[in-house]
## 1
Amino acid sequence: MRVLLLGGTSEASKLARLLAGRPDLDCLLSFAGRTKTPLAPPVPFRIGGFGGVDGLVAFLATQEIDLLVDATHPFAEQMSQNAEAAAKRAGIPLVAVERPPWSREPGDQWIEVADMARAAEALGVAPRRVFLTIGRLQLASFEAAPQHSYLIRTIETAEVAPNFPSYQVISGLGPFTQEDEERLLRAAKIDVLVTKNSGGQATIAKILAARALGLPVVMVQRPHRTGNGACHDAAEALHVILRHCHGSAPRGE
Ligand code: NAP
């Protein structure tokens, strides 16, 4: 069975490792191309958009794909919508992988907001030292709050040049430890953290560190998705893929 795996997340990388080398499955991993130097995956891969739903439908046909897996980031809303529409049109099954969001625990001071514009507003009028861990594509939202000093962490620092007066950019790729995150928050004298509710273990340490240090977190909620019944992790997704492939998952998988 030929599988197209839409990636760009740690779940997709884990799933690619689980699918690599299987004689019953032929997996092609797809990256959007946002990261200039992605780690080489253990399966064949391609880079770049498909050209919307029509392009993806054509790609599924020419590549003779039997099953589509959407393991994109919970905030990659457009790609997930395209995947759902294209799988329907191509008449092939779609397996969605979506890690559960983080949930508030005792000691957390979360300010939950619907989007980045509201996150910038939630920082308030008085100048604060802000740790921004939202990626690099939506930094412009914080141009509306130029009174703050920003520490920006992204995977790649090239091309990060926001249009506000006070900022520093550092690079970092999870997983991070709570100890290191606490050290960073203290050293930079951070007053507040801004993050997307991405979920997962790779970047949860900043949330634990903020809780331990009693710092507020502006938490951007996930976009609404229509699809129910998504798998929560790579192991569950493998099981569902094998059910599609064999009718039922082989023993022990
Ligand atoms: P998006 O807004 O949902 O997608 C925009 C366009 O990028 C899509 O319409 C598609 O172009 C292309 N695209 C997205 N994912 C693709 C993939 N895996 N393979 C090929 N083309 C893809 O996506 P985004 O939020 O910019 O995220 C881009 C990538 O970064 C995704 O792979 C996502 O998993 C990863 N990522 C996103 C975030 C985040 O916070 N958004 C965080 C970590 C990782 P066409 O319409 O031309 O096909």
Note: The CA atoms of residues 79 and 248 lie 29 Å apart.
## 2
Amino acid sequence: MIQLTTDERIQNVTQSKPVILTGLRANNDLHIGNYFGALLPLIDLAKTRSEEFQINLFVPDLHSFTTPIDHSALQADIWNNLRIFAAAGLPLDNPDIFLYRQSYVSAHSELAWIFDCFTGFGELSRMTEFKDKSARLGVDHIGVGQFNYPPLMAADILLYNAVYVPVGDDQTQHIEFTRNTAERMNNQFGDLFVIPKSVKEQHEFFGKDQGLRIKDLVDPTKKMSKSDESGRGIIFLGDDPDDAAKKIMSATTDSFGNIHFDFEKQPGVSNLLQIQALLLNQPLDETVRHWEGKSNYGDFKREVAELVKDFLINFQERLKHVDDSQLTAKLAADEIAMNEVANATLYKVQQAVGLRPQ
Ligand code: ATP
Ligand code: MG
């Protein structure tokens, strides 16, 4: 690995290329939806377009406990995420890629507080994720942190002037909130922030993969989510490969007896077709053409189960060989560089709101 000095890292980060930024919350193991939907596209970009873009990948550890977690597992979960990034092929020696933990850059929390004071209570109350989660947990059990996390997410993005933020559909509203926050502050105080691209423009930039939604295996009408309580419909990257194969074999399908790609009418079968295409790294059309019209769901599932098993065996082997000392060195250098950038943005905002002299 090429070891860069701290000064060289800081110099890299101030070259002012457009920033692409994403984070994966550490609140459980990651699943194949996170892997194929969020991580691989970013790693592909990191491998192919880092000449044009600076890529920030961070572990939003402060977001990890907006919903209750087992705190004795948090360090392990954070490190599991970091190791997964490396095992998935994140080029750790590429100087245009920055890897960091949110809580190691205290400007995130400080800017979030300032944003809080410029955010309406009603505006946050209307966020779909907050409404859903508070309906589920009840108003006395939902934390203020859950209510308040969009301003922290806005800080995560705006501190680095990120232009593209590849996240799933569930985050669309929070990206719009981030844009509104930046516009509101810019209108009041002059040009403080770069406004991230609209969700529509982001979709265009990332092409069709951005819409990827792997569904839960037990209930294929909802997306696979790592915070789902039972875990039976989820293929976690750390699952025992045989158990994962069993989850595929018992995935909910339908009684049509006809393999056909149609997420409306046959969500279970369509989900498995999608999973197979991703595992084979094959265009979906090709996978669909191969199976279309066949009736033996058993054969189909066995093939997908076998692929999932092989994928996990390989991935877990790579995970075992991740060099923690390489990650530690990268985090140490990048967290210094990120503090430099984030503090510079924070200082501008502190000046604008009168906390620091002009
Ligand atoms: P949680 O239940 O904790 O919200 P999650 O599975 O939704 O977990 P997140 O940490 O919220 O995972 O999301 C990490 C990234 O993975 C986001 O960019 C999100 O859009 C993407 N993602 C999450 N679930 C899927 C899925 N089922 N298919 C494709 N992408 C997904
Ligand atoms: Mg989510």
Note: The chain has 15 helices and four strands.
## 3
Amino acid sequence: MTARTRINILLADGCPGGSAAIAGWVRTVRSGKGITFLALNDGSSLECIQVVADTGLENFTVVSRLGTGSAVRVTGMLQESPASGQRLELHATEITVIGSADQDYPLQKKRHSFEFLREIAHLRPRTNTFGAVFRTRSALAQAVHRFFAEKGFMYVHTPIITANDCEGAGELFRVTTLPLDNLPLTNGKVDFNADFFGQATGLTVSGQLEGELFALAFSDIYTFGPTFRAENSNTPRHAAEFWMIEPEMAFADLMADAALAEDFLRYLCSFALEECSNDMAFFDAHIEKGIIGRIRAVADSSFAMMDYSEAISRLEKAPVTFQYPVSWGLDLQTEHERYLTEQVVGGPVFIVNYPKAIKAFYMRQNDDARTVAAMDLLVPKVGEIIGGSQREERLDLLQQRMLETGINPEGLWWYLDSRRWGSCPHAGFGLGFERLVMYITGMENIRDVLPFPRTPRHAGF
Ligand code: 4AD
Ligand code: MG
């Protein structure tokens, strides 16, 4: 068997007159008298290659009746294509049907709604849109590692099973081997002594706390892994299982943290434009008009920064009615975030120095004693894409915050130890990977940038 060439390589480097072997799935079949054209796609790029089959093939009748979705292998000769929009076509000398597909194959039509495609998550990767989304997602994951490798950050794998709720929001999924229909009880309470780990455990909501320990040894680190939140919010921006990138830097303050976040997002935007240009052109044409220009502008611009207090007064003066109330001390909702980034700034903006009462216990208290050195990066359409902060490195203040926020210091003795010996100012942030993919592709629902999304009441297919 001649070695198979991926279609993207063939379309880029193939020469008329050369022979080639490819394999892929049939997107369309057009049959005329004694001739059949197959559009073949193998997922390596958005483009299909046109395969020309004629009566010279011994199985021509079978080929001319192939169904959309069939898997075939083709060997043949490349020729210049007379059709517009394609440079080359493959004139088949042999076509092997590897896996046929019949009329019941659900992807017969050219365009299906995203809602319908979510119901066939096992097949949607074979469509143009999802092909482009998941190729871009893969490229961006590589870009994340490249960015941090170039900056000398160490990659650390933080645990997925954990006994602490980093964000303190009570959104932990439980992990247990206890029999749910016959829980061991002591004084009416579940006895976790009998559980696999001898204590209550769950799936991590963030790798930050462990990441901090590594930053206090290796200076600059990042994590990139799955994150789980049992947050019962059925929104287009929340998933129960998502991926997060969390860098952490020792000897760094909030401004250094914001500078890294800005560099990072701009790098990822440039990367997508350069390395995913075909898919980006598709998003611009079919998903969000003008997205290339918007991403280009972000890659080239410097981001705005606004104090939370300033943001609140801008929102209070806004000539629009919000669904949720606005006043100093309340958290920003997506509608507020979008107003700030879309209407007030017209681009990415860091909101900094939030009230301490609405932020996690580990954030560093500012001198005003009522705000913390927190930052959220807001971007048009998505709202919050990054959340981060400078961390409280002072042991007494950290202990005090834990007590105030109802976090049990006993379970976090190891975290407190990091403030006992060699504590230093440090800062980091979390970028929600799916929010990034949404931002760069223009896709509006997080379910459409996750290969197999997990959301409330939805964990299967
Ligand atoms: O703002 P969050 O909750 O921050 C943290 O978890 C910190 N420990 C990060 C750090 O400082 N190291 O989450 C960070 C980001 C959000 O800005 C958002 O992009 C994303 O994670 N995110 C979600 N993405 C999808 N679905 C969800 N349910 C998400 N919750 C947060
Ligand atoms: Mg946040």
Note: Residues 128-151 form the longest helix (24 residues).
## 4
Amino acid sequence: MSDPNGLLAGQTAIVTGASSGIGAGCAVALAEAGAAVLVNYHSDKEGADAVVAKCEAAGGRALAFQADVASEDDIAGMFAAAVEAFGAVDILVSNAGMQMDASFTDLTKADWDRVIAVNLTGAFLAMQAAVRQFRAQGMRTSRALGKIIVMSSVHDVIPWAGHANYAASKGGLSMLMKTAAQELGQEKIRVNAVSPGAIATAINKEVWSDPAQAEALKKLIPYGRIGDAKDIAEAVVYLASDAADYVTGSTLVVDGGMELYPEFRDNG
Ligand code: NAD
């Protein structure tokens, strides 16, 4: 149930790419923690409506809103809708992301451009709009003026063959997050990242739904299981809350140990 005394009571969050997977999990967890949530979707209205229903079932307020995060106009419309519905925006979870995979020389410029536009430029545009909104509304219920969490990936540090566009977008996102945190800290705006490892969602369904591929994937995870959206959502709620008031410019890696060079676990 949405907790009126919860960690995020009285606050408002925007979650991009929230009609499925990790974003959907984050939206519901934020609502359970007491936040009103704008559930952004790109094309899956039904999915977004189902997430809104789950937020409401948890006792929270929620609104589905269509926007392409790569469009500056759409981002402006999304923030205006959140302010109109809920009065303010305290938390941005920039989660929307995509893969368009190809071997290095088969990767087309169009697929390079689209992944960078959504995963990196889309985050930049949403973060910029969030900072402007935080400044305009001033201090509210939280110790921070505003909180931004970007959904990065273990591939902001682990190179990934066949995914040059995706890995480059997440590496860039990591530096975007740190630079924004450095620049905006004096205004009491906190900016952090969550780096998921392998989380079972639509983005990697062909891997985890195939038993042989799922077993091979688990060999890369010291903790021995594939993650789920809730694993990531819990980390996002923490970073959005005052419990993390002294945390900025950090990446919270939620990966079952995938970044721990698992090939070396039996002595290399
Ligand atoms: P997903 O495909 O379920 O979610 C991605 C969401 O982004 C979808 O809802 C999609 O509609 C949305 N989206 C795509 N383009 C958009 C656009 N232009 N505008 C608005 N929304 C758009 O997959 P997911 O695993 O839930 O991915 C969520 C985030 O987590 C992504 O940034 C992804 O890179 C990251 N991530 C996922 C994993 C994993 O293992 N699943 C691991 C590391 C990072």
Note: DSSP finds eight helices and seven strands in the chain.
